[in-house]
Input
Amino acid sequence: PSEGPLRILGIVATDMTERLQSELALIESQQRFATLFNVLPIPASLATFPHGILVDVNAAFEQDFGFRREEALGKTLAGLGIEREPEEASRLMTRLQADGFAHDVETTYFTRSGHRRFVRLDIEVALIGPHRFLLQTAQDITDKMQAQEDLRVLNQSLERLVLDRTAQLSE
Output
């Protein structure tokens, strides 16, 4: 028989493999998103929803709109002077709240230097963790819009010439 108090030794082991794999997968997913976001050749931004406060912008955003990332973060597109049509922005926000996305939206944005740019927006409301964000790309279609306007003016000019010539021939 043994003398003294009874001693019990217990070991609790938890398999952390699954948790570590999940955390690594999350980190990898975040890195993939960050890489894609940053290398997009068109301006992209991530903003709080529904307030539109910028939390991230890519290099193309900085280049095309003329604002450094540090200047843009914490502000809205309207606050930066990029978006200048509040009624249109309000209609778009209503649409985003109802549908969760808006694709092929043509609008006018302005650069830091005040140059007007026609852009085609694609916006998604994205759930990241417990928060909702606006993920937006803004493809510059200014050249396309200018070409369409030039073509319209040329067509009007040609129609006028045809009408004038037709009138001359019927005299």
